[in-house]
Design goal:
Blueprint: H1 17-20, H2 22-26, E1 34-35, H3 47-59, H4 69-83, E2 92-95, H5 98-109, E3 115-120, H6 125-132, E4 136-141, E5 143-145, E6 148-150, H7 153-159, E7 164-170, H8 182-194, E8 198-202, H9 218-221, E9 229-233, E10 247-250, H10 254-266, H11 273-285, H12 287-309, E11 315-316, E12 324-328, H13 336-346, E13 349-350, E14 352-353, E15 364-368, H14 373-386
Parallel strand pairs: 1-13, 3-4, 3-7, 7-8, 8-9
Antiparallel strand pairs: 2-10, 5-6, 9-10, 11-12, 12-15, 14-15
Bound molecules: pyridoxal-5'-phosphate.
The site of pyridoxal-5'-phosphate has 13 residues, from helix 5.
């Protein structure tokens, strides 16, 4: 294989959030523990990205970025080639990450106290941003049927009180790994039209989709809802460049776009030259690396599921996308404290706690398997050992 995902790269003491902050959050020391929480991978980024960084370092001058032509062209190329979506350059607004864009969208389209809907369990930063902006989080718990999550729009309609202004969708979904079908996306867009809601679609995981599933960008699924749709995306999960903090809000509707532009301008948002060049290199030259990565992650996913599902009472939800395994411990009959203690203190693994993902996440933990097979195998042995009394 031209890309060596098998190579275990030591990330300790590299200012890595995932490895260097794990002890503070989970009481698991990086000295003998494994980091399986924060959503970045332990792999080197595509060679084209690292070559760009080398070139920048060789030149040695790191001033402001100018001329966005190549950067915008790379994003448009990617959306057209991978997602069958023709994007106009003026639709693209750059942000300092997707979470920054979520905050800007909340400020652009809602007022303090307005209701903002999420489908839980869901990526925890949505709730953090809703709270930090003084909006009211409304958690619509998804239904888990035969290992697949579904949005329950009927139950949501009953739950609403008329103060809701926005829906934030995670597409594909983190955690649980659903790739929403065009029908599901259309139903949600129709729901937003009926109840006059802005639809923010966070598609940061759009490229990490396993064989047999196809991601549909919201603008293709529901072109009739473009006057209320904000599509958020980034190359950061796809190419493992999350530290570069570059993302895009892509907004075809000029009125919606002007509002978002106003908020971004008011907070001094700009384009980081180094990350813009990383994005450009990744989208222009990273496709072969991505195909190889997906094949590797698919094998990791199978290995993780086979071994975790062999433990009585543990159930890893079948993922259609992402490298974030979502494991249900409810079948063990243990308390949350007990299974968490076993993962952290017995297995010495730092994994995300399910309750932080909102309603429906209480009995789960999330494990990041974006790592070398040797590290994953080590993690699985530790989990097997920590739950060996169940066998
Ligand atoms: C659904 C989702 N959105 C956004 C982010 C973070 O995006 P950023 O680092 O660009 O703010 C993550 C990271 O895990 C995520 O899973």
């Amino acid at each position: 294989m031209p890309y060596d995902f098998d190579k275990t790269i030591d990330r300790r003491k590299t200012n890595s959030d995932k490895w260097d902050e794990m002890e503070g959050y989970y009481g698991v020391s990086p000295k003998d523990g494994l980091a399986m929480w924060t959503a970045d991978m332990d792999f080197a980024s595509p060679p084209a990205v690292n070559a760009t960084l080398m070139k920048l370092a060789e030149h040695g001058v790191h001033g402001y970025h100018g001329d966005q032509t190549a950067y915008l062209a790379s994003i448009r190329h990617w959306m057209a080639a991978r997602h069958d979506w023709q994007v106009q350059p003026e639709w693209i607004l750059s942000t300092h990450g997707v979470v920054h864009a979520v905050g800007a969208a909340l400020q652009a389209y809602t007022e303090p106290g307005d209701g903002v809907i999420t489908f839980t369990p869901v990526y925890h930063a949505f709730h953090r941003m809703i709270d930090a902006n003084g909006r009211r989080g409304i958690q619509s718990e998804m239904q888990l049927v035969d290992g697949r999550y579904h949005m329950d729009l009927e139950a949501l309609a009953d739950q609403m009180d008329g103060s809701e202004r926005m829906v934030i969708l995670c597409s594909p979904h983190n955690p649980g790994g659903r790739v929403w079908t065009p029908e599901e996306l259309r139903d949600l867009a129709d729901f937003c039209i009926t109840y006059d809601l802005i639809l923010v679609s966070d598609e940061i995981h759009q490229d990490l989709v396993f064989p047999g599933h196809t991601h549909t960008v919201m603008p293709n699924a529901a072109p009739h809802a473009m006057d209320r749709t904000i599509m958020l995306n980034a190359p950061s999960k796809t190419f493992n460049i999350a530290g570069s903090k570059n993302a895009q809000a892509i907004i075809p509707d000029p009125v919606l776009r002007a509002k978002m532009q106003g908020v971004l301008k008011a907070s001094g948002t700009g384009l980081n030259r180094i990350s813009a060049m990383m994005t450009t290199a990744a989208y222009a030259y990273g496709v072969d690396w991505l195909e190889a990565l997906i094949a590797y992650l698919d094998s990791n996913r199978r290995m993780f599921d086979d071994r975790v599902n062999a433990l009585p009472g543990l159930r890893s939800i079948p993922l259609e996308a992402t490298y974030l395994a979502w494991v249900d411990f409810s079948g063990t009959g243990m308390s949350v404290e007990e299974f968490t203690r076993r993962i952290e203190q017995d297995a010495r693994i730092a994994a995300n706690h399910g309750p932080t993902f909102g309603k429906g996440g209480e009995m789960f933990m999330r494990f990041n398997f974006g790592t070398s097979r040797a590290t994953l195998s080590d993690a699985l042995e530790r989990i097997e050992h920590a739950f060996s009394d169940l066998q």
